[in-house]
Queue: 4 jobs
Job 1
Amino acid sequence: MAPSTPATHVKADQDNGQADLGVARRVLSQAGNGLSKMAAELGDEFVRCVTLVSGLEGRLIVSGMGKSGHIANKIAATLASTGTPAFFVHPAEASHGDLGMISDGDAVIALSNSGETPELSDLVSYTRRFAIPLIGMTGKRESTLAEQSDIVLCLPDVGEASPHGSPTTSTTLMITLGDALAVALLERRGFTADDYRLFHPGGKIGKSLFKVTDLMHTDGEIPLTHPDSPMSDTILTMTTKTFGIAGVVDEDGSLIGIVTDGDLRRHMDGQLVDMPTSDVMTTNPRTVGPNMLAAEALRLMNEWKVTCLFAVEDGKPVGILRVHDILRAGVV
């Protein structure tokens, strides 16, 4: 047998690469077709499911075995993070005591493509015994799970992408249907960006939803002075508060100006400390609102080439925000 040449290896790699791309495109196309078919077939059962879950007094328990169990875990996490109290219960653990985690006011979503997963039997029986609503997510309308369920979310029959029937397309459909349920519940409940940030304080999305009020310095930390105060007092305020700026307020407490390091340099002469603050301050200062997103405040700071802004509400300063506060919080 003649030894293979580098050219032979290159051709083999190219042939394998084309075959690999063909497989990948087939898998993705089958999943896309399945999702399109599921979207077209979605109907009253899905609406009933959203209505049931949105009205729960308790929590939504999501369960499944094997690959379906991994999907169930993700669905529970997505629901919980978007305002629907939910958690995953492993069906095998449920048979050994974790059924006690399910109580009146709860509901259960059980995932099984075949609808005949034996490990789910105790969980299904428990819901029937204690009249706990059961939602079955399955690919078989005539299965045991579908027959026992109060609501059936049935997947379209499009087959698995794997030639050996390994869960592929079915799990894609399950996870996407779970996302659809979570988003439908989110929108029905009017779940806001503030609500989302409450559940995601450490994530990138949560940080992007920080508001000025979450990061600004307030009360006694705000460097404030008055227009008739001598600059000696104003400079002392700027020094002790360490922001390098002072807000100037009138008798009503409204912000009418600011004094910055730049203002000091522009008036640097022997008479500066004796001048009234009103002669040095910059009027009509740029400000932000306390409910503005911190990311927007950061954009304005960059645009205006400033490192510090007063947060004003009804004309009065309620806080002061530094660019360092925003960056330290991880807002970009």
Job 2
Amino acid sequence: MTGIRTFGKELSRLPEQLPPELRGPDWVQANPVLIQEHLDRALAMPTGGWFAIDASSAITGAPRPYRVAGHELVVWRVEGALRVAPDACPHMGARLSDGHVREGRLVCPWHGLELADGKHGAWCPFEAHDDGVLAWVRLPEEGEHPTARPILSERPAVFLDSVMRMEASCEPRDVIANRLDPWHGVHYHPHTFKRLRVIGIREDRLVVRVVYGMSDRVGIEVDATFHCPDPRTITMTIVDGEGTGSVVETHATPLGAGRTAILEATLATSERTGFRRALKAAWMIRPFILKAQRRLWVEDAAYAERTYELRQSADRTSSPRIP
């Protein structure tokens, strides 16, 4: 794609001498052992017990059911505050997500039992957190050291956000492994990535130079890093070029055996004077961002599902190592 014209902030030059492991074709650079090493490092990190549930904007005052790590949950708001609890009435097990909220209390649809913030017998709400972009729940995990807040990468102070959620037949590690393989970008998503080159590999992150296509002949070139702040999250941060400071957080939340929710939060920022006007028109811009997010993840979910399928069926003694 040598005919692509790029615009935006000019980047610093590529390193004059790339290390040997970054000089070959993409299929050579995308070394399964290297990807596995980065994945193993991510999987060894603490989570604090937190799981991303959905976009903050998706949770309203009406009870809504979710499944997270095998737990059936009901999620709702009381005067704007996020609430998460088991989705089974302590009386006879009715689904509380089929009920309603009255004067701040969750009302069971079967017999009218009203539940507040505290315990009722064995029923007890979970710790919840709303960071303004995503809604979170903290669940008890064996061996985990709970933290007061989810472990997040640095976010821009001012941003236009968009959150996409979809489900896939895989495990969270397959979603993270997909993002730890940036080499597939141009080949698997030619409609979006016109050029992509890994220009650095550090112990905790990958550095890429990528051209996002605005059309067949025009694109925006940026440098970005990929790193994992916890085992179920990978963050892309633009570190040079248009939109420096913008982040894309990909969160993988286990639902049950072989089923994962993929939540991708894009937090776009810019130093351009027109960005403040763009924020006011966020309701018009957000659908276009969501469309682009979903288009990529329909394809990447298939990648993650294939990785999961191979790992499940591989003969470990004779097959290639699958992340």
Job 3
Amino acid sequence: MTDRYAVIGNPVDHSLSPRIHAAFAARAREDIEYGRLEAPTDGFAGAAHRFFAEGGQGLNVTLPFKLDAWQWVDSHDDAAAASGAVNTIVVDGNAKRGCNTDGIGLIRDLLDNLGWHLDGARTLVLGAGGAAQGVIEPLKRGGAVDVTIANRTQSKAEALAARFDVASAGLGEVGGGWDVILNATAAGLAGTGGLVAPEVVADGRCYDLFYALDGATPFCRWAADQGAKEVSDGLGMLIEQAAAAFLLWRGVRPDTGGIEKALRSSA
């Protein structure tokens, strides 16, 4: 019997997750079906309940539902408990367990795929929403120092920073000198690249948690124009967090090699 999985979000029709998991399943010889599930912005709970009631075996969760998912599940793994956000839901007997694989996906992409270094790296995170919540603790464990959350609404940055014992700032208050800058805001999806002053990204390595198949998100293009040492979008993170979710669901860690190149070449 084929097990059903899906990614739930709004919007979700652009998601590459079905293609990624199809590649994983083929490589691992696992019999799964993986689709897209678009829920109304106020309808996560109902959509998730129906999916599992109809036999679904697992969900990936994307914007804007990572916080809704955290509240909906019956229990949390350590990463989800620490972050307050869920991006993967696992069937656990008669209950649903919320997990967060964003952090491990990011760290694997930064260290293993890109060859960047976090140990001792002054690190700035732009944004204070669900995307940011899942990566701050893994960044700290990876050796990042002086971690600072900058957000347009500074009170949200302050609240999240207090939770993780890091610093906070408004977007307009941030100066330069960063080694790694991560964009965790959705502003880049609307074509807004310049979220901070140019000197913030100059000479730093800039990573966008969002992605474009040509690798040139608005944030990446803008950062490169300001003199960033290196830029990368988040397609590698998407693939690596998906691999971690696949492991949770199927007990098999799939081979991720070559998938990013295949996705970009098919754009």
Job 4
Amino acid sequence: MRINTNVNSLNAQRNLQVSGYALAKALERLSSGKRINRAGDDAAGLAIGQKLQAQVRGLGQAIRNAQDGISMIQTAEGALDETQSILQRMRELSVQAANGSLSSDERSKITAEFQNLQQEITRIAQTTQFGDTYLINGNLAQTSTNVGSELVASAGFSAVRAVGAVVATTYTVAVASAGSGTNSYTVTISRGSTGSVGIVSAVQVQVGTSGTTTVNVGGFSVDLLGSGIQDGGSADLLGSGISSFSVTGGTAMLIGTGATQTYDALSFGLANMTAGSAGLAVGSLQVDTASNANDAITKITAAIGSVSSERAKLGALQNRMEHTINNLSISFENLSASQSRIVDADFALEVSMMVRGQILQQAGTSVAAQANQLPQSVLALLR
């Protein structure tokens, strides 16, 4: 028997320390609600959990961004709805003014309302804003710039218009014979100055020997001049066959969690909808004579079509953003569940661990007390 080293007491103390650490860990997890409170709890789990948290929070903000985008689109579309109503009234006044039975005095009263409606169209366009952003006064219009030397009428192009293009991105357009006829061509739009980034879209079209053919390729409208493309029935291929251009203006809604504008951002432009803009061209119309009124009927009809096209584009963007929100919400839900499984505490398990620790602490304390009394049995040998 030994009294200098009480091995039984040391053993009881060691186990008591272990159970105390487990009890403290269980209490910490129950109080914080997290399984991982420091890197030492689960180093790999902490790293994975933090990465998932970054994605989850980014997705949450992307959802809010898309919702803001829908609100902005609805604001613009509401203004265009009223603009279209005004144009309908202007066309009605033009039909009335075209009637030869009206006197000049009667026509002047029509002119007064007509001019006020023209001014109201411009006022709506100049004042419609979302936050500090003016929407339909031309500030968010998209234009194609830095057009290559081949992207001109002499080489077969008349114009390129972009809808939903990524801002500050270079695109290439190539026209090549489709091989199925002398006037059959394939028009391809690609990202990058050489098309190496990837094809946006390609479409096969028939282009006549004269006139202009408008081709819609991946959100771009490309006007091709038959006289520039064809030379005696053979493909001219537009010089080198590839022409570059870039897109400026417009705006972009960040609807992803990355930092690129290829798939994380939805870029789009909103046309200038003032009365004197090229899209409407109703600012200088007059209805003071029957002849001018007839001319106004034609031009206002075209303006109504332009507003309808712009509203259709906004409607398509809104529908796309709604699908985007649905997709982001699913990802948000699933990634949140994955993060929870890694970093959140399982309360059923932790409560059982706490109860286990409490029992072991009580038992360990009692056993330690008994182990400390065992050396006293040596006194019996001294009697």
